[in-house]
Predict the structure.
Amino acid sequence: MTESSKFFKPFPQSHRIYVPGKLFPDIRVSMREVEISDPLTPKLGIYDTSGPYGDPQKKIDVNQGIEKIRKPWIDARKKNGEPLTQMQYAKKGIITPEMEYVAIRENQKMDVLLGENGSSITPEFVRSEVAAGRAVIPCNPNHPECEPMIIGRNFLTKINSNIGNSAVASSIEEEVEKMVWSVHWGADTVMDLSTGKNIHETREWILRNSPVPIGTVPMYQALEKVNGIADHLTWEVFRDTLIEQAEQGVDYFTIHAGLLLSYVPLALKRTTGIVSRGGSIIARWCMVHNQENFLYTHFDEICDILAKYDVCVSLGDGLRPGSTADANDEAQFSELDTLGELTKVAWAKGVQVLIEGPGHVPMHKIRENMERQEQMCHNAPFYTLGPLTTDVAPGYDHITSAIGAAMIGWFGTAMLCYVTPKEHLGLPDRDDVREGVVTYKLAAHAADLAKGHPAAHFRDDALSRARFDFRWNDQFALSLDPDRAVDFHDETLPGNGAKES
Amino acid sequence: MTESSKFFKPFPQSHRIYVPGKLFPDIRVSMREVEISDPLTPKLGIYDTSGPYGDPQKKIDVNQGIEKIRKPWIDARKKNGEPLTQMQYAKKGIITPEMEYVAIRENQKMDVLLGENGSSITPEFVRSEVAAGRAVIPCNPNHPECEPMIIGRNFLTKINSNIGNSAVASSIEEEVEKMVWSVHWGADTVMDLSTGKNIHETREWILRNSPVPIGTVPMYQALEKVNGIADHLTWEVFRDTLIEQAEQGVDYFTIHAGLLLSYVPLALKRTTGIVSRGGSIIARWCMVHNQENFLYTHFDEICDILAKYDVCVSLGDGLRPGSTADANDEAQFSELDTLGELTKVAWAKGVQVLIEGPGHVPMHKIRENMERQEQMCHNAPFYTLGPLTTDVAPGYDHITSAIGAAMIGWFGTAMLCYVTPKEHLGLPDRDDVREGVVTYKLAAHAADLAKGHPAAHFRDDALSRARFDFRWNDQFALSLDPDRAVDFHDETLPGNGAKES
């Protein structure tokens, strides 16, 4: 049993609030409220992904797992018969508690800032976006600890952080701490990319303690089951892995079902071939067996499993460019076209869909990516890695990619997968995770400002006024990383006096 | 007498080359050539701003100053009568040695990569761009140590680094070291923003040891001369300061001549008023005296002085927005219109012109800035600070601004003034300068890739091939910051073996 403060220092001038639902009065949506010393600035309800870790009132016991806030809703649905996916409920015109939760969460108390009718994000709007496939709510019923969130172009731009990259055994508490550290800084989802011996157990601990959706690449575990030999992979091993992970509660799966046998030769002409790990595994399997990708040929059965557990499919881009030289080439766009075809298959079975995107793209080719994805994939939400806008700055790829991420977010990408300073060079440590998450939070926020999200500019304006008035503590409290802002300030002008003048 | 290695570790697998001129055979353009272990990759001639500090053969003695490479050209011009500005030569159809130097430098040995006729950047093209006012070559004849460089939208995107911010006395060698550290990482120009007691002497040491153009804000020194009291400023004090600095060899002056008395009230409606230091000084002077800005009323005389010394004028944006809330407002654009009017006055006298720009601008308002600047200022080169694309990330403003800088560079901005992580919080130290310069180098390079500079992609592609082949040392040597890339790599996988596999 530990305090949340074990994991990190709480944000200054902040406290946790819970906003109740109207359609579903037992909903309590967590937000961070910041107290500003200027009486003219309204209290801001800041979007908060830290779950119970951000509430000093909650005791955390990683051996018990965190509170299962969605359990009553899930149990009620089970009682009423076979539960449906969020998309199936949406298509039937039913607003779920998850949908109202998401609407309140996205609003960030905008009703206070803009008046009762100031926001267009209503539970009904959420439902209609999910029904249309333009947004997803990843929330496996077997992960009842997860606070509902939405990924779609008409909502706040989200970011993903990756953990568990190491094959070296680490303690369960260390893995949980990485996840908690990510959500403290604002990660909206976390992908567990663990390899090695303790995949299942590590994932179990992460799921039982995670307030955000957890994504995985099931192929990584399937490969472990055949001792790392891609040639030995079979549909049966993969299927069993999907079921195993869906039973545990994973909220979305990256599946490289669009990399067809006929596309592999297209990658041979490239500067950097195939750089996606999942893509390399599948390409090798296809070539060795001279057979079509079994994820493609079994996609119907995959969708049946995903629909049963309401796991979102994140259609992986195994042919994403690994260099700016390979951006927007035939290999990349051929696979994208197939992802569009698979999107329709998944939707027909009620499965929520994300589409994964590049990678490495120079600025002038970014818009084409977004437009082509929308067109070919029928407006399913786009989930991109960066993209990196130049290849010449290893050690700074959180920045080369934040440029591309902010731009593609503005153009409509719904979720940005973070890149840390260690990209291409090594494994991120705790500081790298913080640097990567905060960099992506600022890129996502810049995108929200540019795409005109009605709540986005209030925080900028409140911070700017604090800056102009030399209200240093307010400036720190409103910033994405108050600890760093305070540290940098104090290097030059330490002491409380300097913070008030 | 010291070695260049006193200042920094030399770049790996690199040596200095000097490319001779054709029109002017005594020209020797310095570049860094990188040796790649792959025989298929041509040797790249990397643009190098480090001057003699990047050549281990040269001995450096800061008491003597560095070699005066332009002295023979300047002396020859003096012998032939009154020397003209680069713009005046260009308008007469005369190609100067500076123009050929710049053409060779910009090419980065593209003739080797693309064949003899592969490059459009000829000395004649340089002349025509300078004649049209679309580019400037800042090179005061009293700064003969300066290696010629060009700032214009049809050339490589340049970056500026600021030094000397501290009022605290520091030793001369420390100030010179800050400048050398900036040019090592790739700063194309350096602004000396010194305040305090030893302004003149500090600047003298910087100029005598700087291989890049030096810019200043003469108002800062003029204000010191009236004991920091803006009300006491006069045209005469300012004029004498201009002459003093031009005699020393300053290559460009920021002058806030476009902030008119009638614009001051426009700034009062803003979220963050006037944040430019020069702008605040002038606004105060105008209000106290209820008189028009004396920099505007004396602009003709200012241009006569600048023309005599071939000092570029960088028309300052005293009303640049200090927050995204104030971007593209009436105050900002009114001043920009006046800068356009002043551009024509300066050009008529043969004075080269840069236009300074914001500041803080959300992404969706960046393009309007560039288009309006081009239109109102007759295609004079734009020189922007960032812009920052959100205000919520103090401590990360090198990144919030690199997003805007890369975009506006792509749209046509010729030079980007760097922002360090300490922006808004404190004074940058050595690490912050490196972080700021490298971040801006990558933003400028991303812009060059996007705007299709013919030489830009060779470096990305060579590095990407090295990455794909696991040629780690080649990857490091081609990166903007090899030291960091090596350090990050070695944290996870130290040892030489890991660099070759």
Notes: The mean pLDDT of chain B is 93. Chain B has 21 helices and 15 strands. The longest strand of chain B covers residues 14-20. Chain B touches chain A through 70 residues (CB under 8 Å).
